[in-house]
Amino acid sequence: MPANSLDPVLVQLRGDRTRGASELARWCVQKLGEQAAEAGATSTRGLYAELIGLAEQLGRARPSMRAIRSLADRWIAGLPDPDTMELERYRREASTHAERLIRSSELATSQAAEQAADLIGPGRTVITHSLSSTVLACLTLLGRDVRVIVTASDPPGEGRVLAKRLSEAGIEVDFISDQQMALFVSRADVALVGADAVASDGSVVNKAGTRLLALAARDEGVPFYVCFESLKRGPFAPTDVEIEIHDSDELGLPPLHHVTAHNVYFDVTTPELIDAWISEDGVLTRP
Amino acid sequence: MPANSLDPVLVQLRGDRTRGASELARWCVQKLGEQAAEAGATSTRGLYAELIGLAEQLGRARPSMRAIRSLADRWIAGLPDPDTMELERYRREASTHAERLIRSSELATSQAAEQAADLIGPGRTVITHSLSSTVLACLTLLGRDVRVIVTASDPPGEGRVLAKRLSEAGIEVDFISDQQMALFVSRADVALVGADAVASDGSVVNKAGTRLLALAARDEGVPFYVCFESLKRGPFAPTDVEIEIHDSDELGLPPLHHVTAHNVYFDVTTPELIDAWISEDGVLTRP
Lengths: 287, 287
Fold this sequence. Notes:
2 copies of one chain form a homodimer. By secondary structure, the first copy, chain A, is of the alpha/beta class.
C-alpha cells in the first residue's frame, strides 16, 4: 500500500471545521479499521507497520485536538502482536479493535453527557460556544427542559450547525453573534462547553472564544462547566498543546497592505475560570 | 414642506452600520443645515417649527447614539429667535449655525484624539473594537509609531472598514475575529475604544463586544481607555440609554423552528472596567 493512501482522509481531517475532537477521533479510528481490512499489505508485519504509521500521521494532523492523538495511541497500543497470527485473521482482529474503540469512545461521550445533564438539571438556560458533540448530547438529554443560548462561533460559524441540530430536537434556542456574549451570559444559569484537550492542571483547550465566554461568565457569577470524554485529558501542560492556526481567508478580509489577518483556532481557558470538569468518570469541582 | 421630507435621511441614519456616533451626529446637523436653506416654508416661524420637528426626529432615530440627540439639542438651542429676522436671513443664519456646530464637533473629536495619542505615546500596540472616528483620528496621529489589533466586529464587520483605513494610512494592523480577543489582548499595551454614549457614572455604551474586550483586558492587566467628544457624555444613567436592536438577518442564520436570532447592537461597559476617559477636556482616570 502506498504511504499516501490516507491522504484524502488527512485532507478531510485537517479541513474539517464542524466536527468536534471526539467525533473526529472516532472517524479516524473508523478509517484505520477500514485500512486494516483493505490495505494491500502482503504480510502481517507489513500491515502492522503500515497501520502504525497511518495512526501516527492521523494523530499528528490536528495537534490541538488531543482526543485524536489519544485514540490513535490507544489504537496502536491495542493492536495484536503481528507475530501471533496470519494476515487475514489480523485484518479482522484489527477491524474489531477499531470498532471496540469507537464504541468505547461513544459510550464515554454519552456518559459524560449524562453526568452534565444530571448536574445541570431541568428548567435551566445554558449558554455554549462552538459545537461539541458531548454538549449536544447533554442538551438533547435535557430536551424540552432546557433553553440554549448559542454563539455563532465565527469563523467558520459552527454555532449555526448547533442551532440547526437543537432546532431539529425541538429545543428552544437563542442565537447570538460572538460579540453579544457579555450581553447574554447574564440570561444563562450555566455556561457549558466541550473541550479539544484538557491539560493536567485542568486548563481547557477549546475553540477560540471559549475563554471570552468564561471571563464573561465569571463576571456575571454564572458557573462555567466543561464536559468531555476522559480520553481528552492528558498528562501534558497547556503549553504542550500546539494551538492550530487556520487559513486567514476564513475572516473574509480582502488582502490589504500592512494588514495581517489571523485565525488562531483555539484558546486556553485556565482552571481558575472553570467551576466543574465533567467526564464519564464523574464531576470534579474546583477546590 | 411635507413632514416626511427627511424620510430618506432617517432611513439612511437608521440603516448606517459603519459610521460612529460623532460622524452621524455631524451628518445629521449637515442635513438640518441643508433643510434650513432649502425647506419650502413661507414664514420664519414656519421654518423654525419645521427645523425643530426634524431635529427631534433625527435625535430620536438612533437612541443608543447619544451624540446625535445631544448635537440635535444643541442645534435647537442655538437656532435664532424666529421673531427677530425675515425668512431669507433666517435660512442663512441657521445654515451658519449648523456649520459652526459641525466644526465645533470636529474640533472636539480631534482634540480628544490628540489627548488619547499623547496618553498612549509612540511605539505601542493598541487593540480596538468596532469603528470609532475618534479612535481612527488618534491612531492616524500616532501613524507609523503604532501597531493596531482590529476586531472584525461581526455583524456587520465594521472592523474591516477600519483595517482598510489604517492600511491606507500605512499603519501596521493585525486583524482578528471577535472570538480571538482573549488570545490577542495580551499582545497589546492598551485597549482603546470610542463611545456612543457615556453615562454620568462613567459607564460607556458602545458596539456590542466592547464589554468583552474590557473583561479580557482587565484579565490580562492591559489598561482600557475610552475616548470621545464630550458631547456624548450626558446627565443620564446607563439604564436611561435605550439599547438599539437591529435586524437579526445580519447574523446569517436561516429561519429555524424554535430558534430566535438576536442582534443587540450595543453593550454597556461599567466604570470599574475602565482606566481612563479621554475627551477634548482632558483625561479622567479611575479614582
